[in-house]
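== Sequence, structure tokens ==
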Amino acid sequence: MNSSTHENDFYAWTAEQVNLLKTRQLDQIDWQNIADEIEDMGRSEKRQLENRLEILIMHLLKWQFQPNLRSRSWQLTIKEQRLRLEKLLRKNPSLQSHLTEAIQDVYPLATISAEKATGLSLFPAICPYTLTEILSPEFLPE
């Protein structure tokens, strides 16, 4: 199989590449596409980190700025995202070094999501929560 199979039948391409690797037929490996796919896998893990942080921060904002609408559902979403982040970071410890930057990157998106969900436009310009607070199972902003 050649690299065009990568485009036309991804599953078949992966099976063939695995077979070539296992049988050490290195001269037939589609190196460029393998490198691209591995790179994409790494980006996917980082995107998952950012998505989970965005959802978590959005719910923390809703919790803080709409105290009269607090619900068990919001609390469970906060808990779920923290657990999913913990699992992601346990399986990918090198993502720890991206947390601070990821919070800065996703915070504007989290405020937009919170504005859409609440109709409010009073959220701080900078994330009001520390990394420790965001990840702490006990923290709920008042």
About this structure: The helical segments are 3-8, 10-22, 31-65, 72-91, 99-118, 131-135.
